[in-house]
Amino acid sequence: MDPKGSVSHSKDERVAPRARLLVAAGELFYRHGIRAVGVEAIAEAAGTNKMTLYRHFPSKDELVAEYLRQSAKEADTCWGRFERDHPGDALAQLRAWLAEMAEHVASADERGCPLVNAAVELPEKGHPARKVIEEAKATQRARLIGLCAGAGLNEPELLADELHLLLEGARVTAQSVGADGVGARLIRMSEALIASHAPRH
After folding, report:
1. Rounded to whole angstroms, how far apart are CA atoms 128 and 43?
2. Where are the alpha helices (DSSP H) in the chain?
3. For the chain, how big is the Rg over CA atoms in Å?
4. I need a surface site. Which of 109, 134, 162, 200 has the fewest CB within 10 A?
5. Tens digits of per-residue pLDDT, 110-158?
6. Model pTM score
7. How far is CA 84 from the centre of its chain?
């Protein structure tokens, strides 16, 4: 499943019911919102029934948490790819991440980050999805700090936060006023931030 989810295999009987449910839930949650989608719609899209859904997930909340856990895990695979493509070059890895994020932002199929969307819909601190969201975002921040530090940039924690905030702003802008040109501006502004943190000799 990609970070957005896909229903292409949600009714394929060769796929285990749990996997079909997660694929169907991922697509429906991402496209329509978590609150707007009921368990009956998910079960129907997965080609199964509510009894089967509850056999695999004790509640809708637990299904939401697992959907986000899988989304975060899938999104997390990019870091290994950047490292393989640019071994030992933290700055190149950072720029590869920015390029990929800019591509996502510019895509007409994108509806933003599934984790951020869920955080907006699920303000309750006790919701099982909140811990998944917070841990995933903390992991991403730590990776960015590590790359900024590895690149020898000044104040790596501040730069990581600046890049994260810039990306989240770009995602919201793409959804609210359109994605035209947003990806390119994200790259340009990110490069300006990186340059502002470069060591001064």
Report:
1. 21
2. 17-32, 39-45, 50-56, 60-85, 90-106, 114-121, 128-150, 156-176, 182-196
3. 19
4. 200
5. 788 899 999 999 989 899 999 999 999 999 999 999 999 999 999 999 9
6. 0.83
7. 21
